[in-house]
Design goal:
The complex is a heterodimer of chains A (113) and B (114).
Chain A: E1 5-7, E2 10-13, E3 19-24, E4 31-37, E5 44-50, E6 53-57, E7 64-68, E8 74-78, E9 87-94, E10 103-104, E11 108-112
Parallel strand pairs in A: 2-11
Antiparallel strand pairs in A: 1-3, 3-8, 4-5, 4-9, 5-6, 7-8, 9-10, 9-11
Chain B: E1 4-7, E2 10-14, E3 19-25, E4 32-38, E5 45-51, E6 56-59, E7 62-67, E8 72-77, E9 86-92, E10 103-104, E11 108-113
Parallel strand pairs in B: 2-11
Antiparallel strand pairs in B: 1-3, 3-8, 4-5, 4-9, 6-7, 7-8, 9-10, 9-11
Classes of the chains: A mainly beta (113), B mainly beta (114).
């Protein structure tokens, strides 16, 4: 196991609601990336946080936002949920933004009805 | 934008045989290529990776080859076992300022038949 944890495991929301997902990075890691994995597809990069600052973003609208805390844990917030937001949300922990290896957490399965 | 194509989408092999999964990438400046194994309902697990200054890397039954000129890389699994059954994803890391962004392929569902 990687030591990266995520909560909650599963979540069911309705369209238009807001959701917050949480990630605790591996000990000693200061960088967290978030990915969205739709059913049957590869993960897609949402954004990355390094030392509490967003330092890169994929092709996701502004209603996807995040935070990183001083202990390097992170949150992903999604506003105005749409049906297409239903997916597995994965966070990945990196020792530093300049390192290669990304260790994934178990993910949060979000279902939007 | 950056793109990674992965083939085949499904692969079925007899236990003990070899399996090969191929990926091509679009950004010639990509310099890091990991492979992840994802079992049903579980997290992607890094199984092997290769950097652009290396042409081949091996770890027991798993090997990865990289051809920078052709912009493709492949995963080779030898002496396959039932526990190798999973979905495998290749990824490439394009050079962009700041983030360590991985661009993933669409995945290959590998089934090992006993």
């Amino acid at each position: 196991e990687t030591g990266v944890t995520q909560s909650p495991t599963h979540l069911i929301k309705t369209r238009g609601q807001q959701v917050t997902l949480r990630c605790s990075s591996q000990s000693g890691h200061n960088t967290v990336s978030w990915y969205q994995q739709a059913l049957g597809q590869g993960p897609q990069f949402i954004f990355q946080y390094y030392r509490e600052e967003e330092n890169g973003r994929g092709n996701f609208p502004p209603r996807f936002s995040g935070l990183q805390f001083p202990n390097y844990s992170s949150e992903l917030n999604v506003n105005a949920l749409e049906l297409d937001d239903s997916a597995l949300y994965l966070c990945a922990s990196l020792r530093d933004f300049s390192t290669d290896t990304q260790y994934f957490g178990p993910g949060t399965r979000l279902t939007v009805l | 934008g950056e793109n990674v194509e992965q083939h085949p989408s499904t692969l079925s092999v007899q236990e003990g045989d070899s399996a090969v999964i191929k990926c091509t990438y679009s950004d010639s400046a990509s310099n890091y290529f990991p492979w992840y194994k994802q079992e049903l309902g579980k997290r992607p697990q890094l199984i092997i990776d290769i950097r652009s200054n290396v042409g081949e890397k091996k770890d027991q039954r798993i090997a990865v080859t990289l051809n920078k000129t052709a912009k493709h890389f492949s995963l080779h699994i030898t002496e396959t076992q039932p526990e190798d059954s999973a979905v495998y994803f290749c990824a490439a890391r394009p050079i962009i300022q700041g983030a360590q962004k991985l661009v993933f392929g669409q995945g290959t569902r590998l089934t090992i038949n006993p």
